[in-house]
């Protein structure tokens, strides 16, 4: 097996860009999820409710846990959900994902499968076009963790 010089240079350049960006590759402790939340909120107040989470209470395998997030929104140009953010409060890398939505979407909904390390709360933040932010949490128990620490 031979490795081309171009492959090595490309890989090294990619690694250097990731390191130079200052972006953490993973959270060092279980409180780092609060930093992600604060960054999303950017000083805005948060309200409970209006978000429906479909997440199993118990997951046998934390490597593939189904999650559906729904909001009741008219999805018009003046009143729509602009983003849905999912945070796992006790995962090594707490930011599960962010979904950007537009008024052209027929409903405010995101479906995915997430990795869950251990028993924890999943926090969902939803940004609305008028600047409001809603949150909802759901607890999950995991038999076998799905994240390597």
Automatic annotation (TrEMBL):
Q: Which residues form the Ig-like SoxY domain?
A: 42-147
- Coiled-coil residues are none
InterPro entries from the entry? Answer: SoxY, SoxY_sf, Sulphur_oxidation_SoxY
Signal peptide range equals: none
| Protein name (database record) | Sulfur oxidation protein SoxY
């Amino acid at each position: 097996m031979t490795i081309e010089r171009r492959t090595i240079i490309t890989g090294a350049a990619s690694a250097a860009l990731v390191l130079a960006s200052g972006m953490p590759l993973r959270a060092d402790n279980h409180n780092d999820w609060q930093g992600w939340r604060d960054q999303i909120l950017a000083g805005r107040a948060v309200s409970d409710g209006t978000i429906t989470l479909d997440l199993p209470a118990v997951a046998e395998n934390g490597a593939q846990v189904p999650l559906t997030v729904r909001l009741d929104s008219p999805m018009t140009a003046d009143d729509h959900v602009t983003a849905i953010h999912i945070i796992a409060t006790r995962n090594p890398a707490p930011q599960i994902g962010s979904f950007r939505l537009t008024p052209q979407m027929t409903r405010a909904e995101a479906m995915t499968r997430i990795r869950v390390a251990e028993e924890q709360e999943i926090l969902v933040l939803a940004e609305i076009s008028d600047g409001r932010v809603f949150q909802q949490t759901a607890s999950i128990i995991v038999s076998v963790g799905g994240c390597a620490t």
